[in-house]
């Protein structure tokens, strides 16, 4: 029997055995709906949902709504000089079904959080340290951009290409809010030049109106992940 | 003619005059839907919407998506020792229709952000400075509570009663994310004891199972606002 | 047989039985989407969802959409003199995914349905018998209140604190509609004074601006549930 | 003055005139979002929205959330022997944006609330008096039907054809809850045979697989409304 | 072992067995949220959801987002002279959770797609070949109808009764877009006269204001499916 | 007459005319909610909404739900060799509030619909003529791609970068469905290299890990629109 069938059968076994053995419903289904804390253990079984199934309420603790994942700076020693640390439903199980999450972005001096989109969320960015040049581009091609300093904030509408750049000589830090438990981040450069399998070179050459050789050269900077 | 009819008539005038005078649609309706920046000037006219009408796209600037309202601490010199500063759609016009907002909470030493609910949002609180005792109560009466320190975060599910207390001897600061452009805040104590007109004393006495005199005494601490 | 072997054995049994017995998909997935009747038996297994999984359509009957749970008055012999009986997704499985539910409220003479919120629903209350004083408090602290008599109705907006009081000398009855399959009810007094573990006394004292001793005295009226 | 400046100019005029004439906007846009009471006066002007614009908060009273429209029985002296009285956003302005409404249905003895759909809502029906035969048909053609007596309830899923019949010799009454501020009701017979202009006879004849003459005969029972 | 521990135990067994047998969770729960491809194999097990559970991301291929189901004409050799072929979530697993689907409708000369509703979707119809008379009826009984030719399109609002008729002498074809992964189709004639068990004859007779014998005669044209 | 007096005069005229002409509400607010046909004339006035206000129902005709905008091929004589023609709420007023739209894409031989996103919609593409190489890239960098021929379809999940290329020697045509009345299209190349004002060259150079001179060279291919 293939491993991937195991837990489905065990679930069926549970149903049968429990139908025989359990006199009545325990638990507190009321609570289920105040929250639905993600049951990460479900990832060990075959069932995948849009989001996560819930932990049984008797197993939920205050720690499910807590995280220290944003307490430490990310490592900005990379080609773009920035690092995003997410506190989303994959890290904070209590966020499941709640439609909100946060991220921390660290920037080396002159570091760039390169152009990207969040397919499923609006972002509101609050600067903790330093000063950033930020901007987003509308579907009509307008760029809305300005400098945002410590204590100030900026909003990036749903799904639009946006970026930030540390315009100072010291590290900068921002904290972002999203109206999704898992906003998703699609780096434009990675999507075009680092996809696996690759986006055909002729498609990119025609889109960017450049020579295929230039496309190939850029692709070498984005090693395939898979 | 009553003032409140003025702008409705001017709107009608506009329609008639422009129907005669303007050869065709200008503007860029495309842009409208990448965002709908709140037109605060509409508050001067009679029209009220669920949210706000939008500024014309040609009048939108990057500043509509920007705010420095959270840069300065609130005044915690009040009976509860805390102050909430909101960066919602009433302060950041670009948030209109985008479903996200932020707040800053300042706490004096031992200050309390007293039990309250947000009728329209989930809250995710990130501690900037200090250390807080936080908690929320489910509809079943469970309290989920713990201490949250600098750099850590905690989630409060939709609509549930929650609170924070600065458990240290120095001021504390937190920044919160909400999945609503205007979450609303309903302070429990203010709603019960400071509503205007007042909630009947016998209703409160019976609800709290205390003497009417005690209710009256508490009410004196919450002077009517209107 | 050791437990580990038991489930392995059951696994093998299941493999064989299911391989023999389930020739193909059967069922009618079309129907699933006209409704998704809650499968209460799922509560006996480990899986918890936001809401409920569905019964197989071939097991659904008209009775899944029916209930007599609101036919009898609730017992109003309690300190507040009222009783709420809910016909929500926990009682009427056909309501699952449908976003609507009802409640019946019975009031003894002078009985009070004490201040509470529904974190996930708007309420529309229709008076079947008697006459009620009703009200809700906005996030700004306005109280909207009036008397509602037999045959009349009143609306309580989402998430706001509200209450009803029987202002007559005979029992009263109301029927309420909610736009949620499980609106949740958070009694303010219970949440503040009867939570388990308790909300800290100093938080409540500061919030209500009363002495800690008074808080402790009120807490004794609300025995812990857990 | 160029036409495209004209409306900006008129808007500016509005602003100035209103700034002079209206002592203070005052008001509290905060409140707008606890509710958005329908401004029926807007129907006198040219603006039509999906739903209604809101009354200014300072003009809202408790009566906006109240109605006695369901207190009196409807007139069942008609061919089908039933009458539906709606308490929706067109009658109860406070319901605007709140997503809930109610109806009262009166049935003469043997009266029928004929097959119909609600394009925008789920219905939950509670029997106040008498006994009804009720049913709905799924998209697969199953009829789920049963008798529902005084104090009992039944649920009709979104958009599906359903009906009720008074199976007793005395008048019956029911109260229904909907998860829409304006559910809409599409009577099947009226839509097919009483539409204006008429649905072509050959379409109906082919759909029902009957003779065109029979279709014409039925149409005579449903006089055009417009 | 107490029954209530049994399922926890079996769950633990699952965890252990799978931890041993499955080398690594691998997968990327991130991906889950870019899409949730329907896992049709789940139909072999007991679990039913509103929609479908997702395939594990490592099993998803481009073919899950592809279909040729609309490439061939449907068989219009039936009493109404039309055939609808759906490309919904039951045929295209990648549509799960994405809220869109398509259909192809073929019409024999003079063929009719008889009056029907989609309880869960708006329809936008594009004519590929031929010329159609189309229309929908509002809840007020207005018919909005006109002829739509090759290359033209027409919109049918949510839940309203609508129909199409091939007004030409050659076959016609249309392609429709829906904003639901499974819009559902409720044929009016089938729902009234072909439901199983049958809608009571007296209900239909009273609704249509025709003789019961005529109702019975129509019913014979719609043989029961179940 | 000074402008300020003009509008005052017009005001007075309006008062009189409207007082005489509009005896009462009239109209049919019921209808408003079966649909809300976009009132394009509102674009001549100052009011902008998220979407459009509605035409008065008495002015709505079947033509509001109709369009022939997709009947003719777009002009593919451009650098990428493709043309998108949209039938969205800006062209089909009846689509307002209905959440669906369509597009037609024409491709010259070897023409490319270059990488782009739709910030607000899922796309389902149906090939009318020819054969396309299509693909989308997930947030994790996987490319899901394949060839789709006449009569076949493919789904692009929400917000993800995707493209199509005509892989044949003859023109190709596709028709797409979207679950938004105005999906928005963000061309990646245009957003990065043709935005106005321009995205800073150093941001792009760092994001793509190429020399600033190459960025500048690409920018020259995308002349500023504004």
Spans of chain A with pLDDT under 50 lasting ≥5 residues? 1-32
Radius of gyration of chain A: 22 Å
Q: In oligomeric terms, what are we looking at?
A: homohexamer
Q: What share of the residues of chain A lie within helices?
A: 10-25%
Q: Give the spatial strand order of the biggest sheet of chain A.
A: 2-3-10-5-8
Instruction: Give the count of helical stretches of chain A.
Output: 5
Distance between the termini of chain A: 28 Å
Inertia-based shape of chain A: globular
Strand residue percentage of chain A = 25-35%
Structural class of chain A: alpha+beta
- Which pair of chains has the greatest number of interface residues, and how are they split between the two chains? D-E, 59 and 58 residues
Order of helices and strands of chain A: HHEEEEEEEEEEEHHH
User: What is the residue-averaged pLDDT of chain A?
Assistant: 87
- Count of strand segments of chain A: 11
- Strand count, sense and closure of the main sheet of chain A? 5 strands, antiparallel
State the gist of this model.
6 copies of one chain form a homohexamer. Chain A is of the alpha+beta class and 226 residues long.
């Amino acid at each position: 029997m293939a491993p991937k069938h195991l837990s489905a059968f065990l679930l069926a076994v549970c149903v049968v055995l429990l139908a025989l053995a359990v006199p009545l419903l325990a638990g507190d289904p009321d609570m289920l709906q105040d929250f639905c804390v993600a049951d990460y253990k479900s990832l060990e079984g075959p069932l995948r949902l849009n989001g996560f199934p819930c932990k049984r309420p008797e197993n939920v603790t205050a720690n499910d709504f807590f995280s220290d994942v944003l307490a430490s700076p990310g490592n900005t020693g990379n080609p773009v000089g920035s690092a995003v640390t997410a506190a989303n439903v994959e890290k904070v199980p209590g966020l499941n079904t709640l439609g909100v999450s946060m991220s921390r972005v660290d920037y080396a001096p002159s570091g760039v959080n390169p152009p990207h989109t969040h397919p499923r969320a609006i972002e509101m960015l609050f600067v903790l340290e330093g000063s950033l040049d930020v901007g987003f581009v509308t579907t009509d091609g307008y760029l809305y951009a300005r400098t945002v300093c410590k204590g100030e904030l900026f909003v990036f509408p749903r799904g639009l290409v946006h970026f930030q750049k540390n315009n100072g000589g010291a590290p900068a830090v921002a904290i972002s809010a999203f109206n999704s438990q898992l906003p998703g981040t699609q780096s434009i450069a990675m999507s075009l030049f680092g996809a696996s399998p690759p986006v055909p070179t002729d498609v990119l050459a025609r889109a960017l109106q450049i020579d295929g050789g230039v496309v190939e050269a850029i692709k070498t900077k984005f090693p395939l992940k898979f």
